[in-house]
Design brief:
This protein has about 400 residues and is an alpha/beta fold. The protein is built from 14 helices and eight strands. The protein folds into two domains: about 170 residues, 3-Layer(aba) Sandwich (Rossmann fold), CATH 3.40.50.1970; about 220 residues, Dehydroquinate synthase-like - alpha domain (Dehydroquinate synthase-like, alpha domain), CATH 1.20.1090.10. Bound molecules: 2'-monophosphoadenosine-5'-diphosphate.
Length: about 400
Amino acid sequence: MARFTLPRDLYHGKGSLETLKTLEGKRAMVCVGGGSMKRAGFLDRACDYLEEAGMEVQLIEGIEADPSVETVEKGAKAMLKFQPDWIVAMGGGSPIDAAKAMWIKYEYPDITFADMCKVFGLPQLRKKAHFCAIPSTSGTATEVTSFSIITDYSKGIKYPIADFEITPDIAIVDPELAETMPAKLVAHTGMDALTHAIEAFVSTANCDYTDALALYAIRMIGKNLVGSFKGDKEMRDKMHNAQCLAGMAFSNALLGINHSMAHKTGAAFADGHLIHGAANAMYLPKVIRYNAKDKTVAERYAIIADDLKLGGNTVTEKIDLLIAYVRNKCDELNMPHCIKNYGPGGLPAEQGFVTEAEFLKKLPEIAVNAIGDACTGSNPRQPSPEEMERLFKCCYYDLEVDF
Ligand code: ATR
């Protein structure tokens, strides 16, 4: 038996933010990031709608990108004081992910972080509050997923919390919120969404329900991502739905080593972050090649290539074309192909900020951490630590994967 879980309600389309007027409750805690939602006027609108619904509203503002354990602790304390019956998280993946973890700590103040990270091991939520998620980026799809990523900066790793308990009750997918995204954010979050859909389609936990969502999401991302990056509004709106469909797929089919590798390299290097979507985009061609050494998995990738109408007669040709397609997307979106060329802000550079010396020194530990990541279990091929190290080297130097 398998389970397929999504939010109870999903409101979508321009102006759907207004749905907040219909929530029933006494107190809403609204969680946002560093100011983008305030500047664009969405925060005020959301608060007005909630007040119109008769609720008292309090804010948790300033949630940082890649939120920390400390931010979660602080937010949970504020919730314990305010006692909200609705948590409304609005913004990119970061404030929504942080709010999900705060929610757990609010419902179970004594739960430890280690306990929260036990995969599908959370106690029942919703004894104190329900959760509404409103995304403003088109990538993480955390508004429909059972995941949250919190960073432990003291250890330099990202923890994925995974449990259907934190699948939001309501998602509001209003494309107006995504219209203010700068192009670079469109690129990074869009490639994250493409990776979600491709990994979900080849995951060992895939099923008919997730396949349909993943394949259609890939098709939509293929059609709309570059146009959205270049400023086409209709395509920007389509991408908001496409990433959400990808989220519905991977929340239920899970992911694979592409994400394991991105999680464990995101905060691992001294001079800066490897932005999650950019890391995923760099690793995707390498991971496809590695997974496709398995004949059955190769056939799954070939289905994706066929759906994208990439051509090719044999499975091998189709995989070559799929890899070229992903690399071409990176070029069109001005993203680097390998860690060595990953410059500040995720732009391509002759020599990026991760030096060869630092990379090689940290490689064995990063490889072991990536294998231990929650996403590795559903990857269609299980790498040994040696293989994971070799794979990372291919991702650093942009080498062909031949094992
Ligand atoms: P994600 O996890 O979805 O990739 P994030 O980490 O939540 O994104 O946010 C990354 C950056 O994008 C943040 O600087 C965020 O700004 P705020 O923290 O001020 O909210 C910014 N951002 C998110 N949505 C945006 C939007 N619609 N327009 C402009 N900037 C946005």
